[in-house]
Amino acid sequence: MPDPIRPDPIRIAVIDSGVHPDHPHIDAARLLPGVAIAGDGAISECDTIDALGHGTAVTAAIQGQSSNALCLPIQVFHNALRTTARALVAAIDRAVAAEVDIINLSLGTVNPAHRDLFAAVADRALAAGVLIVAARETEGTPCYPGGLAQVLGVSLDWDCPREDYAIRDGIVFASGHPRPIPGVPPRRNLHGVSFAVANMSGIVARGGRLAIARHLDQATPNAATRSTIQKQPIAPTA
Asked: CA–CA separation, 182 vs 177, rounded Å?
């Protein structure tokens, strides 16, 4: 479990399409050296420049919520917003090995065939005291791994202020809007449950390790898992 008295900054792995450090919403000084994960799970130490924009917007939302957190980009989306279960598992395990405090997953799959695979890796993260924040559902359909009891699943609430979150019937809700762009109406900017997840990751980081520990205390390990890999692409939740 995380040590609540550690003075060093919160570290957040952002598993996505990388990040563009020159974007005006990105504080490059708070980016850690990232890694790229291929579809077969192979890991390479290389630049994680974002060619798709999704990871940059997600990272910007996190940084906007937490002024001190450090973000570790782990690139699983490369030429398109699609990846594999093998790549995502490798990315989560790499984040845990890097001793991050939070893993942000603004992505997911609605394919229940992946449930046990993700439950196993989520168990490993939970045992290491790492909080996974992910989309709980998309358009009413459960997402994985965000729908698992080991994970802090986040649902979308358009009326929730960006700086806050709500809990209703035990479910966490957050705003689906990213950082605003001057002159651009919110609904014309990127939006969706991906950013509800990112906002929640930043809000938890802002609360420090005590907040992380509170959410970890509510997570439940899986009783039994099996490691099978199904061939089904994983995509962003928005």
From this structure: 14
